[in-house]
Amino acid sequence: MLSHTAVGLCGKQSNIMRMLQTEGMLKRAGDLVYTFRFLRLLTTSFEDTEAFKLGIIDAKGKRQKSFTLDNMEDRDNYRNYYTPFHKLVFNIKKIMAKAPGGGSKLASYAAALFLLKEKFSMPQGKLLEGLKVLGVTEADFLTEQSEWFVLEDERLSPGSYKVMNEKLLNDTLDETVNARDNVKVDAECYPVGCLFGINIYEVTHARTKRNVYVSVGELIR
Questions:
Q1: Which of 7, 68, 80, 197, CA to CA, is 20 to 30 A from 129?
Q2: Span 185-203, pLDDT tens digits
Q3: Residue 175 and residue 62: Cα distance in Å, rounded?
Q4: Residues contacting 95, CB < 8 A, separation 6+
Q5: 0.70 cut: is pTM over it?
């Protein structure tokens, strides 16, 4: 016959297992929600988004300076339709809209998608599903992997570079990094991750002193 202590321990273990199962189900449900939203936003024109209809962004996905947060309704609209998730997907859409793009465009995809993956824990496979809808495959990224500026140990060669496309700051997601802006690479700049076979590095935006993700293919001297 089990003691009261043993029964209590079994009960606690059972509760912990139920909690872990519930957490796992919630995470999977959250992943599905973000995947659905990612696919929907990715395939919706800027003009058809609520953010455009409300005047938050323009037809190219750029934040409208004329949109203010002076009243409660505008603040609510901004929170609901220009969330960090919206910013990240809109940023990817803006990169996609640039033509021609070539290797630098795909390299910018990789860095932008890595930021989305880091912020919202989206699986790489789900990101790839979204890109396939737009005709981009994993093979496209692999053929565009560049070795320029990379040392033998996969570090980026230290120094000053320019980014070829607009980017978001890693922490605030502010749209303050413009094409041709300078970024600084320190002496110990190793890859912080890899997406679709492309190494991602974290460098410092010279003007704001904040970090951004880049891949080698979008850097120029």
A1: 80
A2: 999 999 999 988 889 999 9
A3: 9
A4: 101, 105, 108, 109, 112, 165, 166
A5: yes
